[in-house]
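Lab notebook: predicted structure, single chain.

Context: the supervisor wants predicted structures on file for every construct in the current expression panel, including those that have not yet been purified. This is the next one on the list. No modifications to the sequence; it matches the entry in the shared construct table.
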Amino acid sequence: MFIGEVVGNAWATRKHPSLKNRRLLLVKPIDPMTGEPAGDAVMAVDGGMESGPGSIVLVVDEGGSARGILQDEAAPVRTVVCAIVDQAACGGKAKKYT
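Prediction complete. Output recorded below exactly as produced.
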């Protein structure tokens, strides 16, 4: 899992049937306390959170768990947005995102 910022959308003219009506997003990992980039953007399926560019999200990056969130064991998916982050806390410090 990682916290990231949605930096864009991706479109596909042809998708696996499991992805019908699901949004494809580009998510860049960030340091949750500073908001600084922490890696390259990855494509993720929105798991029903209705997130979009600018959203700070929690991302599951493991196939079995991702398919469990989508409730579709046949989905060819590894990375899913599973939550919109309101706040992160570490070492007694907190950062609010909403």
